[in-house]
Write a structure and sequence with these properties.
Layout: E1 11-13, E2 19-21, E3 27-29, H1 34-45, E4 49-50, H2 51-58, H3 64-84, E5 92-93, E6 97-99, E7 104-105, H4 126-139, E8 156-160, E9 175-178, H5 187-198, E10 203-208, H6 209-212, H7 218-225, E11 230-235, H8 240-248, H9 263-269, E12 273-277, H10 283-293, E13 297-302, H11 310-315
Parallel strand pairs: 1-7, 8-9, 8-10, 10-11, 11-13, 12-13
Antiparallel strand pairs: 1-2, 2-3, 4-6, 5-6
Length: about 325
Protein backbone atom coordinates (compact mmCIF):
# COMPACT_ATOMS: atom_id res chain seq x y z
CA UNK A 1 0.00 0.00 0.00
CA UNK A 2 1.39 3.45 -0.87
CA UNK A 3 2.16 5.91 1.88
CA UNK A 4 -1.10 7.39 3.16
CA UNK A 5 -1.95 10.96 2.29
CA UNK A 6 -2.83 13.28 5.14
CA UNK A 7 -6.25 14.93 5.06
CA UNK A 8 -8.04 17.39 7.26
CA UNK A 9 -11.43 15.77 7.86
CA UNK A 10 -13.18 12.42 7.94
CA UNK A 11 -14.87 11.74 4.60
CA UNK A 12 -15.32 9.26 1.77
CA UNK A 13 -13.00 10.32 -1.05
CA UNK A 14 -14.47 9.50 -4.46
CA UNK A 15 -11.70 10.63 -6.81
CA UNK A 16 -8.97 8.12 -7.61
CA UNK A 17 -9.14 4.88 -5.66
CA UNK A 18 -12.06 4.90 -3.23
CA UNK A 19 -10.67 5.94 0.15
CA UNK A 20 -11.75 6.87 3.64
CA UNK A 21 -10.12 9.69 5.57
CA UNK A 22 -9.78 8.35 9.10
CA UNK A 23 -9.82 10.25 12.38
CA UNK A 24 -6.01 10.03 12.59
CA UNK A 25 -5.72 11.94 9.28
CA UNK A 26 -4.67 9.02 7.08
CA UNK A 27 -6.35 8.31 3.74
CA UNK A 28 -6.92 4.55 3.46
CA UNK A 29 -8.02 2.82 0.24
CA UNK A 30 -11.19 0.73 0.35
CA UNK A 31 -11.07 -2.79 -1.09
CA UNK A 32 -12.62 -3.55 -4.49
CA UNK A 33 -15.38 -5.84 -3.21
CA UNK A 34 -19.11 -6.27 -3.61
CA UNK A 35 -19.90 -4.82 -0.14
CA UNK A 36 -17.94 -1.68 -1.06
CA UNK A 37 -19.82 -1.48 -4.37
CA UNK A 38 -23.03 -1.54 -2.32
CA UNK A 39 -21.69 1.29 -0.14
CA UNK A 40 -20.73 3.29 -3.23
CA UNK A 41 -24.26 3.10 -4.66
CA UNK A 42 -25.75 4.14 -1.32
CA UNK A 43 -23.23 6.97 -0.89
CA UNK A 44 -24.19 8.44 -4.23
CA UNK A 45 -27.92 8.07 -3.58
CA UNK A 46 -27.66 9.54 -0.06
CA UNK A 47 -31.41 9.18 0.41
CA UNK A 48 -33.36 6.01 1.15
CA UNK A 49 -32.90 3.44 -1.62
CA UNK A 50 -35.42 0.59 -2.05
CA UNK A 51 -34.06 -2.89 -1.37
CA UNK A 52 -35.67 -3.99 -4.62
CA UNK A 53 -33.57 -1.48 -6.60
CA UNK A 54 -30.35 -2.81 -5.10
CA UNK A 55 -31.37 -6.42 -5.70
CA UNK A 56 -32.20 -5.62 -9.33
CA UNK A 57 -28.86 -3.88 -9.84
CA UNK A 58 -26.66 -6.60 -8.36
CA UNK A 59 -28.64 -9.84 -8.76
CA UNK A 60 -31.11 -9.37 -11.63
CA UNK A 61 -31.13 -13.08 -12.53
CA UNK A 62 -31.78 -14.35 -9.00
CA UNK A 63 -35.22 -15.10 -7.62
CA UNK A 64 -36.52 -12.79 -4.88
CA UNK A 65 -35.54 -15.08 -2.00
CA UNK A 66 -31.96 -15.55 -3.22
CA UNK A 67 -31.55 -11.84 -4.01
CA UNK A 68 -32.77 -10.88 -0.52
CA UNK A 69 -30.29 -13.32 1.03
CA UNK A 70 -27.44 -11.93 -1.08
CA UNK A 71 -28.33 -8.41 -0.01
CA UNK A 72 -28.42 -9.36 3.69
CA UNK A 73 -25.05 -11.13 3.47
CA UNK A 74 -23.33 -8.23 1.74
CA UNK A 75 -24.96 -5.71 4.04
CA UNK A 76 -23.50 -7.64 7.00
CA UNK A 77 -20.05 -7.60 5.34
CA UNK A 78 -20.33 -3.88 4.63
CA UNK A 79 -21.14 -3.15 8.28
CA UNK A 80 -18.18 -5.27 9.38
CA UNK A 81 -15.89 -3.32 7.05
CA UNK A 82 -17.14 0.00 8.40
CA UNK A 83 -16.42 -1.22 11.92
CA UNK A 84 -12.90 -2.39 11.00
CA UNK A 85 -12.12 0.97 9.38
CA UNK A 86 -13.62 2.88 12.32
CA UNK A 87 -16.13 4.59 10.04
CA UNK A 88 -18.75 5.90 12.43
CA UNK A 89 -21.51 6.45 9.84
CA UNK A 90 -24.12 3.71 10.25
CA UNK A 91 -26.06 2.08 7.43
CA UNK A 92 -29.70 2.81 8.20
CA UNK A 93 -32.25 0.17 7.27
CA UNK A 94 -35.95 -0.51 7.42
CA UNK A 95 -38.18 -3.14 5.83
CA UNK A 96 -38.20 -1.43 2.44
CA UNK A 97 -34.89 0.34 2.02
CA UNK A 98 -31.38 1.33 3.05
CA UNK A 99 -29.53 4.61 3.46
CA UNK A 100 -25.86 5.49 3.96
CA UNK A 101 -24.90 9.14 3.69
CA UNK A 102 -21.28 9.70 4.74
CA UNK A 103 -19.53 13.03 4.19
CA UNK A 104 -17.90 12.93 0.76
CA UNK A 105 -14.95 14.80 -0.68
CA UNK A 106 -13.08 15.11 -3.96
CA UNK A 107 -9.39 15.88 -4.05
CA UNK A 108 -6.68 16.37 -1.44
CA UNK A 109 -5.51 19.93 -0.83
CA UNK A 110 -7.48 21.01 -3.91
CA UNK A 111 -5.90 18.41 -6.24
CA UNK A 112 -8.12 15.73 -7.80
CA UNK A 113 -6.27 12.40 -7.59
CA UNK A 114 -7.85 10.69 -10.61
CA UNK A 115 -11.11 9.56 -12.23
CA UNK A 116 -14.11 8.70 -10.10
CA UNK A 117 -13.58 5.36 -8.27
CA UNK A 118 -10.51 4.68 -10.40
CA UNK A 119 -9.76 0.98 -10.81
CA UNK A 120 -13.01 -0.12 -9.19
CA UNK A 121 -14.16 -2.98 -11.42
CA UNK A 122 -16.15 -6.05 -10.34
CA UNK A 123 -16.58 -8.77 -12.93
CA UNK A 124 -19.94 -10.46 -13.31
CA UNK A 125 -22.07 -7.50 -12.24
CA UNK A 126 -22.97 -5.89 -15.56
CA UNK A 127 -25.69 -3.56 -14.28
CA UNK A 128 -23.46 -2.13 -11.57
CA UNK A 129 -20.68 -1.74 -14.14
CA UNK A 130 -23.03 0.19 -16.47
CA UNK A 131 -24.20 2.34 -13.55
CA UNK A 132 -20.62 3.20 -12.58
CA UNK A 133 -19.59 3.95 -16.18
CA UNK A 134 -22.62 6.20 -16.58
CA UNK A 135 -21.74 8.07 -13.39
CA UNK A 136 -18.17 8.57 -14.54
CA UNK A 137 -19.32 9.84 -17.94
CA UNK A 138 -21.87 12.17 -16.35
CA UNK A 139 -19.18 13.64 -14.10
CA UNK A 140 -16.87 14.21 -17.09
CA UNK A 141 -14.11 15.43 -14.78
CA UNK A 142 -16.31 17.91 -12.90
CA UNK A 143 -15.05 17.38 -9.36
CA UNK A 144 -17.83 19.33 -7.67
CA UNK A 145 -20.61 17.27 -9.22
CA UNK A 146 -19.73 13.67 -8.43
CA UNK A 147 -22.67 13.23 -6.07
CA UNK A 148 -26.12 13.94 -7.46
CA UNK A 149 -27.13 15.93 -4.41
CA UNK A 150 -24.05 18.11 -4.60
CA UNK A 151 -25.01 20.12 -7.69
CA UNK A 152 -27.45 22.48 -5.99
CA UNK A 153 -30.28 20.78 -4.21
CA UNK A 154 -32.29 23.98 -4.31
CA UNK A 155 -32.65 23.67 -8.09
CA UNK A 156 -35.99 22.50 -9.46
CA UNK A 157 -35.92 19.61 -11.90
CA UNK A 158 -38.99 19.15 -14.04
CA UNK A 159 -39.40 16.33 -16.49
CA UNK A 160 -41.97 14.63 -18.65
CA UNK A 161 -43.12 11.03 -18.30
CA UNK A 162 -40.36 9.24 -20.28
CA UNK A 163 -37.60 10.32 -17.89
CA UNK A 164 -39.39 9.61 -14.63
CA UNK A 165 -36.89 6.92 -13.59
CA UNK A 166 -33.89 9.29 -13.58
CA UNK A 167 -32.11 11.53 -11.06
CA UNK A 168 -31.69 9.40 -7.96
CA UNK A 169 -30.56 11.41 -4.96
CA UNK A 170 -32.55 14.59 -5.57
CA UNK A 171 -34.84 16.10 -2.97
CA UNK A 172 -38.34 14.92 -3.84
CA UNK A 173 -39.93 18.32 -3.32
CA UNK A 174 -37.66 19.79 -6.03
CA UNK A 175 -38.49 17.19 -8.69
CA UNK A 176 -41.73 17.52 -10.65
CA UNK A 177 -42.93 14.65 -12.83
CA UNK A 178 -45.75 15.69 -15.17
CA UNK A 179 -48.06 12.77 -15.91
CA UNK A 180 -51.41 13.94 -14.56
CA UNK A 181 -53.11 14.23 -17.96
CA UNK A 182 -51.68 11.03 -19.44
CA UNK A 183 -50.50 12.92 -22.52
CA UNK A 184 -47.40 14.73 -23.73
CA UNK A 185 -46.96 18.50 -23.86
CA UNK A 186 -47.67 19.62 -20.29
CA UNK A 187 -44.14 19.82 -18.89
CA UNK A 188 -43.05 23.03 -20.65
CA UNK A 189 -46.03 25.18 -19.52
CA UNK A 190 -45.66 23.79 -15.99
CA UNK A 191 -41.94 24.60 -15.98
CA UNK A 192 -42.70 28.16 -17.03
CA UNK A 193 -45.00 28.53 -14.05
CA UNK A 194 -42.42 27.12 -11.65
CA UNK A 195 -39.69 29.35 -13.08
CA UNK A 196 -41.91 32.43 -12.84
CA UNK A 197 -42.74 31.60 -9.21
CA UNK A 198 -39.11 31.02 -8.23
CA UNK A 199 -37.71 33.97 -10.12
CA UNK A 200 -34.08 32.87 -9.69
CA UNK A 201 -33.50 30.89 -12.89
CA UNK A 202 -32.80 27.64 -11.05
CA UNK A 203 -35.23 25.50 -13.02
CA UNK A 204 -34.22 22.70 -15.39
CA UNK A 205 -36.77 21.20 -17.79
CA UNK A 206 -35.95 17.85 -19.39
CA UNK A 207 -38.41 17.13 -22.16
CA UNK A 208 -38.71 15.12 -25.36
CA UNK A 209 -38.56 16.88 -28.71
CA UNK A 210 -42.09 15.86 -29.77
CA UNK A 211 -43.60 16.91 -26.47
CA UNK A 212 -41.79 20.26 -26.48
CA UNK A 213 -43.17 21.02 -29.95
CA UNK A 214 -46.71 21.01 -28.54
CA UNK A 215 -46.03 24.40 -26.94
CA UNK A 216 -42.84 25.56 -28.68
CA UNK A 217 -44.37 29.01 -29.21
CA UNK A 218 -44.09 29.65 -25.48
CA UNK A 219 -40.40 30.29 -26.01
CA UNK A 220 -41.58 33.74 -27.00
CA UNK A 221 -43.41 34.05 -23.71
CA UNK A 222 -40.37 33.36 -21.56
CA UNK A 223 -38.27 35.75 -23.66
CA UNK A 224 -40.85 38.54 -23.41
CA UNK A 225 -41.37 38.00 -19.67
CA UNK A 226 -37.66 37.60 -18.92
CA UNK A 227 -38.20 34.19 -17.33
CA UNK A 228 -34.90 32.38 -16.74
CA UNK A 229 -34.61 28.60 -17.00
CA UNK A 230 -32.68 25.86 -18.79
CA UNK A 231 -34.54 23.62 -21.25
CA UNK A 232 -33.01 20.31 -22.31
CA UNK A 233 -34.81 18.90 -25.34
CA UNK A 234 -33.98 15.20 -25.70
CA UNK A 235 -34.10 14.97 -29.49
CA UNK A 236 -34.44 11.50 -31.03
CA UNK A 237 -36.20 12.79 -34.13
CA UNK A 238 -39.60 11.32 -33.38
CA UNK A 239 -42.17 10.30 -30.80
CA UNK A 240 -39.82 7.83 -29.17
CA UNK A 241 -42.37 6.12 -26.94
CA UNK A 242 -44.38 5.10 -29.99
CA UNK A 243 -41.35 4.34 -32.17
CA UNK A 244 -39.99 1.77 -29.73
CA UNK A 245 -43.39 0.14 -29.25
CA UNK A 246 -43.78 -0.22 -33.01
CA UNK A 247 -40.31 -1.71 -33.35
CA UNK A 248 -40.95 -4.16 -30.52
CA UNK A 249 -43.97 -5.48 -32.47
CA UNK A 250 -42.13 -5.43 -35.82
CA UNK A 251 -44.31 -2.62 -37.18
CA UNK A 252 -43.06 0.23 -39.36
CA UNK A 253 -42.50 3.28 -37.08
CA UNK A 254 -42.29 5.78 -39.98
CA UNK A 255 -45.46 7.68 -39.05
CA UNK A 256 -44.01 8.42 -35.59
CA UNK A 257 -40.73 9.80 -36.96
CA UNK A 258 -40.57 13.51 -37.81
CA UNK A 259 -36.80 13.98 -38.14
CA UNK A 260 -34.33 15.99 -36.10
CA UNK A 261 -35.36 19.58 -36.52
CA UNK A 262 -32.89 22.24 -35.34
CA UNK A 263 -34.61 23.07 -32.07
CA UNK A 264 -31.65 25.19 -30.93
CA UNK A 265 -32.13 27.41 -33.99
CA UNK A 266 -35.82 27.76 -33.14
CA UNK A 267 -34.86 29.01 -29.67
CA UNK A 268 -32.43 31.51 -31.15
CA UNK A 269 -35.16 32.65 -33.54
CA UNK A 270 -37.26 33.60 -30.53
CA UNK A 271 -34.34 35.62 -29.11
CA UNK A 272 -33.11 33.03 -26.60
CA UNK A 273 -29.81 31.20 -26.32
CA UNK A 274 -29.73 27.83 -28.10
CA UNK A 275 -27.09 25.11 -28.44
CA UNK A 276 -27.15 21.86 -30.42
CA UNK A 277 -25.26 19.13 -28.56
CA UNK A 278 -24.22 15.95 -30.36
CA UNK A 279 -21.49 14.61 -28.06
CA UNK A 280 -20.36 14.35 -24.45
CA UNK A 281 -17.81 16.65 -22.88
CA UNK A 282 -19.43 20.06 -23.43
CA UNK A 283 -21.85 20.26 -20.53
CA UNK A 284 -19.67 21.89 -17.88
CA UNK A 285 -18.58 24.77 -20.13
CA UNK A 286 -22.08 25.21 -21.55
CA UNK A 287 -23.62 25.31 -18.09
CA UNK A 288 -21.10 27.89 -16.88
CA UNK A 289 -21.94 30.05 -19.91
CA UNK A 290 -25.68 29.61 -19.35
CA UNK A 291 -25.39 30.54 -15.67
CA UNK A 292 -23.37 33.66 -16.50
CA UNK A 293 -25.78 34.79 -19.22
CA UNK A 294 -28.73 35.42 -16.91
CA UNK A 295 -31.09 34.34 -19.71
CA UNK A 296 -33.23 31.35 -20.64
CA UNK A 297 -31.49 28.79 -22.82
CA UNK A 298 -32.38 25.64 -24.75
CA UNK A 299 -30.03 22.70 -25.27
CA UNK A 300 -30.95 20.49 -28.24
CA UNK A 301 -29.58 17.11 -27.08
CA UNK A 302 -29.31 14.65 -29.97
CA UNK A 303 -29.65 11.08 -28.69
CA UNK A 304 -29.64 7.66 -30.35
CA UNK A 305 -33.13 6.78 -31.56
CA UNK A 306 -32.41 3.03 -31.58
CA UNK A 307 -31.84 2.55 -27.84
CA UNK A 308 -34.98 2.11 -25.69
CA UNK A 309 -34.94 2.78 -21.96
CA UNK A 310 -34.49 -0.02 -19.43
CA UNK A 311 -38.24 -0.14 -18.58
CA UNK A 312 -39.13 -0.30 -22.28
CA UNK A 313 -36.62 -3.10 -22.84
CA UNK A 314 -38.26 -5.02 -20.03
CA UNK A 315 -41.93 -4.27 -20.79
CA UNK A 316 -42.00 -4.16 -24.59
CA UNK A 317 -38.96 -6.17 -25.69
CA UNK A 318 -39.19 -8.87 -23.03
CA UNK A 319 -35.67 -8.42 -21.70
CA UNK A 320 -35.09 -9.44 -18.09
Amino acid sequence: MPDPQVVDEMALHLDGALSWARADGDLRSLPVTLPVALLLVLARRREWMPRSALMTMFWPEADAERAQLNLRVNLHKARALLKDLRIDVPIETDRRGLRWAPPVQVGVNGAVRGPLASGFEISGFERFDRWLRGWREACDGAAGRVVAGDTDDEDDLLRGVPLSQRFYGRRAENVHVINDFGAIGSAFPTAIGIAAARGDGKVLLIEGDGSLMMHIQELETIRRQGIRMLICAVNDGGYGAEVHKFRAQNYDPTESVHGRGDIAAIARGFGLRGEKITGLGRFEALFDAHYASGQAELWDLHVDDKIPSAPYRRIHFGEV
